[in-house]
Amino acid sequence: MEPKNKVFIATSLDGYIADKNGGIAWLDDIPEINTIDTGYETFTSQIDAMLMGRTTFETVLSFGIEWPYKKPVFVLSRTLTKVPQNLKGKVFLVNGTLKEVLQTIHNKGLYRLYIDGGKTIQSFLKQDLIDEIIITIIPTLLGGGLSLFGELSEKLQFECVSSKVYLDKIVQNRFVRKKV
Amino acid sequence: MEPKNKVFIATSLDGYIADKNGGIAWLDDIPEINTIDTGYETFTSQIDAMLMGRTTFETVLSFGIEWPYKKPVFVLSRTLTKVPQNLKGKVFLVNGTLKEVLQTIHNKGLYRLYIDGGKTIQSFLKQDLIDEIIITIIPTLLGGGLSLFGELSEKLQFECVSSKVYLDKIVQNRFVRKKV
Q1: Burial grade of B1 (CB within 10 A; 0-12, 13-18, 19 or more)
Q2: Which residues of B touch A (CB under 8 A)?
Q3: Radius of gyration of the CA atoms of chain B, in A
Q4: pTM for this entry
Q5: Is 0.85 exceeded by the ipTM?
Q6: Which one of 3.10.290.10, 3.40.430.10, 3.40.50.2300, 3.30.1340.30 gives the CATH number of domain A4-177?
Q7: Which chain B residue lies closest to A128 (C-alpha atoms)?
Q8: Which phi and psi angles does B48 have, rounded to 5°?
Q9: For A89-106, how does the pLDDT look when each residue is reduced to its tens digit (9 = 90+)?
Q10: Of all helices (H) and strands (E), which one includes residue B158?
Q11: What is the 3-state secondary structure (H, E, C) of B62-84?
C-alpha cells in the first residue's frame, strides 16, 4: 500500500488553529457544526493510524474525556517516557527524524496516516511529507493566534479537488499535493 | 441603496496576497486560471466604484498596461496630490477617516464598493466595514509573504454562503458578514 500522510483540520477564516490565548472555544462559534457530519468519521475510517505532537496529545488528555481515537495514535516526543496506563496499546511514543518515525510506523503495516497538531503538520510540510489537506473553515476572523501554516523554504503546489459548504456557513476544501 | 463593501481577491493556500518579495508571479502557478471565468466580470458589473490604497494603485500603474478598471476608482492617499493626466475622470484621490471617505463616495451616489489592496482591506476589517469577501485560493503554499488578514481587536463572524471549484484545482469561497 502506498503511504499517505493526510491532514484533517479546522481553521478560522484567517487561518488560525488556536486563538491568541491558545484557545479553541471559537470552534463552537457555529454550534450547529456539532450536529452534522462533516466527513470526520469517513476520513478516520480510511486511515490506519494517527501521528500527533506531544502538545496536541497533552491537550487532548487535558479535556478529561474518554480517549476519542479508535486507531493507534503515535505521539512524537523527545521528552515523554511513558504513556498513561489506560492508554497502553492505544498510544505509542515515537521519536527520531520524521523519516525514521514514518519508517517505524510503516514497518507495523500502517501506511495511511492522519497527521495532527500545528507544529507536527508544519514539520511535515517543511519536508514535503503531506499528501492531502482537508481544511474546514470556521468563518470567524480571529485577528491573531496560532497559524496552521508556517514558514517554508520552497513553495509547494497543491490542487483543490473538492469543496463543500455546510449549513450555508462552513466550508470544507480538500487539497492534494501535486507532484510532477 | 444600502451601502456594501466587498472584497474580491486571490490568496495562496496559506493566506498570502504577495510572496516574501512582494511578488505575485505565483498567481500564475496555475496558468489555466487565465482562460476561465472565475466571476470577476460579474462581480465588477455589480459594483459602483472601487476603493484601493496608494500602494495597490501604484502597483497597477507599474504594470504599464492599459488602465484595467471600468468603474470609478478612489485611491486612499495622504501623500498623492494629483492623478496622471490620462486617468483624470477615472481615478479620484480621497483621504480622511474611512467613514469620511465612504461618506464622500456615497454622496456621489456610489454605494456598492469593491475594496482592494492588503492594507486597505485590513483597515476596513479593523473597523468592521466589510460586508462580503470572495476569496479565490490559488493552492500554492508560499511559506511566507504578505497576509491578506491582519490583527483585529475583536473577532468577526462571517458565513460561507457558497463555494466553487475551478479546473479541479482552484477554489473560490464566498463569505458574508453575519450581523446580529
Answers
A1: exposed
A2: 13-15, 19, 26, 29, 125, 133, 137, 139-144, 147-165, 168-171, 173, 175
A3: 16
A4: 0.96
A5: yes
A6: 3.40.430.10
A7: B141
A8: -95, -30
A9: 999 999 999 999 999 999
A10: strand B156-166
A11: HCCCCCCCCCCEEEECCCCCCCC
